[in-house]
Write a structure and sequence with these properties.
The complex is a heterodimer.
Chain A lengths: L3 E3 L2 H23 L3 H4 L2 H22 L4 E3 L5 H37 L5 H22 L12
Antiparallel strand pairs in A: 1-2
Chain B lengths: L3 H12 L8 H13 L5 H8 L8 H18 L1 H7 L8 H12 L3 H36 L2 H16 L6 H14 L3 E2 L5 E2 L13 H17 L16 H12 L2 H15 L5 H16 L11 H25 L5 H12 L6 H6 L1 H30 L6 H20 L3 H18 L4 H25 L10 H31 L1
Classes of the chains: A mainly alpha, B mainly alpha.
Protein name (chain B): DUF112 domain-containing protein
Pfam families (chain B): TctA
Keywords (chain B): Membrane, Transmembrane, Transmembrane helix
């Protein structure tokens, strides 16, 4: 049974979804207020905002606005992996798909406790370069590569 | 209904020489590999190998492409079961129970169940195509935009309410997904929600978004686990257990039959296809089951329902392609390109004038289904070894494949960036109990829903009474309401009956 604890995250997610819905509705209206443009967006946005309001009112009534059943895995446990993945994607254009991939795999292995350096270097280099080479040959688009021939 | 002269000619076309059959096994293998690799799509495999079909005759080209389709439909279920990453959107529901089965150490049985259901489903799809191609094409013609819209709405509502205990969150996720699916240029040429970014003009790249929300976000959650299957003994690939899984699937003929029929009917609707049929079949099976709470926790019926439906959708989408010349999705769109390369136009005239070719394609697919059993059984043990790989090796490898695959889909950094953004959204959604499948399906169907609604509005001139003249629309609306309220009503009825008996 997941632990009950005070958590503002879920409340913020609901507010975030409501904000996105409201922003998108206003953006669509600013583009054109014709019925053809708002046929789906307007009623759907109203429904979403209505459901979110119901959810918030229900929680307020139950006194559970900030306390929800949190996932058994705290967010901060997986945060380093998310940050590493973000850095990988953002570095693809600079480091090239080959070098960025090799570095991402190697750093991931180290982060998750692999201490066999031969395995870290061997697997990341072999898998990373093989995948980058395969895709660079298969895809009809140019890929940024630093070591491999493009 | 069946032209026996054309049947004879179709058989002659197939068996007069061995040429057409040479491409079938390579096609199934290619389909299995592309379907089973997250990020690579069946349509991508077909598109990459389409130029090769220039050097084949039409029958051989169609056999090759349909073999990729058949192999890929089953292949997509393999990563869904082993990694909770549907290879394509047609295997989303396979992951709901296939992956929990794998986590319980029943990955061999789950793969066997999926193979048997896929084979029976695909066979059903082509059998229905054989007997019903003409009536089915007539039925599809009767579906107008208003029917399409209510079908989407029905599907969305059902999907969003899958997580029984958090229906409101499911509905929010699904409807926000639908809204996000309309970002970009609308049917009337207005750009909404693009924030001035040109790469959003065509909308959010849905497949990279799907890869981010399904694959990457789940992998983040698994980052601290040692193996997909914790027990070392359970990680063993046992061919006997795969056969056991095949037999297990046969214990649910009704689920298979219902999945097959849903797959054919939904697969025949252009633009909807197997992405929706697997979910509808799953939901219907769960709804009708005596123990709906066992679904999502490793119930083999869930895998049977999903795989039978997505495999039989192939037959349905082929019906639309052959009878109307309309592709139901990416894969049949590539086939339409193959038609054009061979100067052939699909449609009622094609069926009338080249009935023998149509029957030859159908018969070849019967044979492909049996070949899938052999090729599938040979390949599953190889692919199932994935559960033996430690997560610290598996996770970065799959993330890399997803990033590369998304780059392949968009041809620029938009794909990988979309994977990243939606991986984070999916991670947060999962953590706080929002339905990730509902959000993804919403995004997939958003623009189609808007287009259908707009066309209905244009046809009706804005008159709501138009809906009353559409009996099919009303019928589907009634189904929608029934699906929404039947469960709570049945629960109340059961409580009342129990109270009365007491």
């Amino acid at each position: 049974m997941p632990a009950q604890k005070r958590d503002y995250g879920d409340f913020l997610v609901l507010i975030g979804l409501a904000s996105f819905t409201l922003w998108y509705l206003l953006d669509a209206i600013s583009v054109s207020a014709q019925p053809q443009n708002l046929l789906l967006i307007l009623p759907l946005s109203v429904i979403v905002l209505f459901i979110i309001a119901i959810e918030l009112v229900l929680r307020l009534k139950q006194g559970t606005l900030f306390s929800i059943s949190a996932d058994e895995e705290p967010l901060h446990h997986t945060l380093p992996v998310v940050v590493l993945f973000g850095a990988y994607v953002l570095s693809l254009d600079t480091l090239g798909f080959d070098v960025a991939t090799v570095m991402f795999i190697a750093l991931f292995l180290i982060l998750k406790g692999e201490r066999n350096w031969l395995a870290v270097v061997g697997f990341s280099a072999a898998f990373g370069l093989a995948v980058a080479f395969f895709f660079s040959q298969m895809l009809p688009y140019p890929m940024t590569l630093l070591l491999l021939p493009s | 209904m069946i032209d026996f002269g054309a049947v004879q000619q179709g058989l002659d076309l197939l068996f007069s020489n061995f040429g057409p059959w040479l491409v079938v096994i390579p096609g199934i293998v290619l389909g299995l590999i592309f379907g089973a690799t997250p990020g690579l799509q069946i349509s991508m495999a077909m598109a990459i190998f389409l130029p090769m079909t220039m050097y084949m005759d039409f029958i051989q080209a169609m056999l090759f492409l349909t073999a990729i389709f058949t192999g890929g439909s089953f292949g997509a279920g393999i990563p869904a079961i082993l990694m909770n990453i549907p290879g394509t959107s047609s295997a989303i529901a396979t992951a709901f129970d296939g992956y929990p089965m794998a986590r319980k150490g029943q990955h061999n049985q789950a793969l066997g169940v999926a193979l048997a259901a896929s084979v029976v489903g695909a066979l059903m799809g082509y059998l229905v195509l054989f007997f019903m191609i003409q009536p089915l094409s007539y039925l599809v013609l009767r579906l107008g935009p208003s029917e399409m819209f209510v079908v989407i709405l029905w599907g969305m509502t059902l999907i969003a309410s899958l997580k029984g205990e958090q229906v409101l969150k499911g509905l929010v996720a699904g409807f926000v997904g639908l809204l996000a699916g309309t970002i970009g240029f609308s049917e009337i040429g207005l750009a909404r929600g693009t924030m001035g970014q040109t790469y959003l003009l065509d909308g959010i790249p849905v497949i990279p978004a799907m890869m981010g929300m399904f694959a990457a976000s789940e992998l983040f959650k698994l980052a601290n686990k040692g193996f997909i299957v914790e027990s070392a003994d359970a990680r063993k690939v046992k061919i006997g257990e795969i056969f056991e899984g095949c037999k297990m699937a046969m214990r649910y003929p009704v689920v298979m039959l219902r999945g097959g029929l849903i797959g054919v009917l939904v697969g025949a609707v252009p633009g909807v296809g197997s992405s929706v049929s697997n979910l509808l079949s799953y939901i219907e099976t769960k709804r009708r089951d005596r123990n709906p709470d066992s679904f999502g926790k490793g119930n083999p019926k869930g895998v049977v329902a999903s795989e039978a439906a997505n495999s039989s959708s192939e037959g349905g989408s082929m019906a639309t392609l052959l009878a109307l010349g309309i592709p139901g999705g990416g894969a049949t769109a590539v086939m339409l390109a193959a038609f054009a390369m061979h100067n052939i136009t699909g449609g009622p005239q094609f069926i009338r004038q080249q009935t023998d070719v149509v029957y030859a394609i159908i018969f070849a697919n019967f044979a492909q289904v049996f070949l899938l059993v052999i090729v599938g059984l040979l390949f599953i043990p190889l692919l199932a070894n994935i559960v033996k790989v430690p997560m610290r090796y598996l996770i970065p490898s799959v993330l890399v494949l997803a990033v590369m695959g998304s780059f392949g889909l968009t041809g620029n950094m938009t794909g990988p960036a979309t994977v990243l953004v939606f991986a984070v959204i999916g991670w947060i959604f999962r953590h706080y109990g929002y339905s990730v499948p509902a959000a993804v399906i919403g995004m997939l169907l958003g623009s189609l829903a808007e287009k259908s609604l707009l066309h209905s509005y244009q046809i009706s001139g804005g008159e709501i009474s138009y809906v009353l003249e559409r009996p099919v629309t009303l019928g589907i609306l009634a189904l929608l309401l029934f699906s929404l309220f039947s469960q709570p009503l049945m629960a109340r009825f059961s409580t009342w009956r129990v109270a009365k008996q007491a």
